[in-house]
Amino acid sequence: MTAAGLASLLDDRIRVARGFVAPARAAALMATLLRETPWLAVRYENGGRPRELPRLTVNYGERSYDYSGLVFTPLPWTPLLTELRALAEATAETRFNALIVQLYRDGEDGVNWHADDSPGVGRDPIIASLSFGATRQFLVRARGASEPCLTLALAAGDLLIMRGDLQHTHQHKVPREPGVTGPRINLTFRTLAGPAPQPEVAHASRVVRWPDEEG
Ligand SMILES: O=C(O)CCC(=O)C(=O)O
Ligand SMILES: [Fe+2]
Fold first, then answer.
1. Residue spans of alpha helices (H) in the chain
2. What superfamily would CATH give domain 10-192?
3. For the segment 154-200, what is each residue's pLDDT rounded down to a tens digit?
4. Mutate which of 16, 102, 131, 171 to test ligand 1's pocket (most atoms within 8 Å of Cβ)?
5. pLDDT of res. 212
6. 172 ligand 1 Cβ < 6 A
7. Fewer beta carbons within 10 Å, N or C terminal of the chain?
8. Measured from the CB, is residue 88 less than 6 Å from ligand 1?
């Protein structure tokens, strides 16, 4: 543990602060974010077949983010997200200008192996991730390996920081966990610089209400 209560992993390129947001506040934030975020179901075509990302996602900040080959216009910061950004910045000791908010509706949602290495984040990005709601597994593997070298259960209020050359040496994943019935929200703060991404690629994403008012 460092002075700030951060557990250090993989040569200090992953740091985890358990309970960074206290439980009552984390629960209140989960409810507010669920209710107030204009969730987007990201739809795209793959080999002519319509696909949808297995999670809902929204971008905030000053710059478009290139995600799964699609470019999305970000929404402006809200007072709440600005406040959370300041907390993340203080611990990560950097400034962030972009945020991806993702909703894993239940254990059927997840994100497959990837690295956060889109050109806009620069060479060795510092990325801060805040989790709320259901606890989910976060796996890390070395590039070229099939098995994870690190498995973290990210719970409500946990802060995870990735930095150094981790995105070049490793990939990460939030696997499907069919036993999980509750939703999870994850916020990843990033710093985007350099040339703006290409013009928007055609996609059929749409804002969805979740949970559905009816259900
Ligand atoms: O949900 C998480 O903990 C990770 C999300 C992630 O890897 C990403 O947004 O790039
Ligand atoms: Fe990621």
1. 23-36, 79-92, 166-169
2. Alpha-ketoglutarate-dependent dioxygenase AlkB-like (2.60.120.590)
3. 999 999 999 999 999 999 999 999 999 999 999 999 999 877 665 55
4. 102
5. 76
6. yes
7. C
8. no
Centroid of ligand 1 to alpha carbon of 7 (angstroms): 19
CA 153 to ligand 1 center in whole angstroms:
13
| Bridge partners (DSSP) listed for residue 15 | 8, 161
129 lines ligand 1 (CB under 6 A): yes
Decide if pLDDT at 102 tops 60: yes
User: Would you say the CB of residue 64 lies under 6 angstroms from ligand 1?
Assistant: no
**How many residues are there in the chain?**
215
Q: Order of strands, edge to edge, in the sheet holding 40-46?
A: 7-9, 14-17, 159-162, 127-133, 184-190, 98-104, 49-61, 40-46, 206-207
Query: In the chain, what are the domain boundaries?
Result: 10-192
Alpha helices in 93-215 (DSSP H): 166-169
Give the closest residue (by CA) to ligand 1 atom 9: 188
Interface predicted TM-score (ipTM): 0.99
Round the CA-based radius of gyration of the chain to a whole number and report it.
Answer: 17
What is the token pair recorded at 38? Answer: 């204009």
Assigned token pair, 184:
């999870």
The answer to whether 88 touches 160, Cβ cutoff 8 Å, is no
Residue with tokens 């000053």: 62
Strands of the sheet containing 150-154, edge to edge, are: 111-114, 170-174, 136-142, 150-154
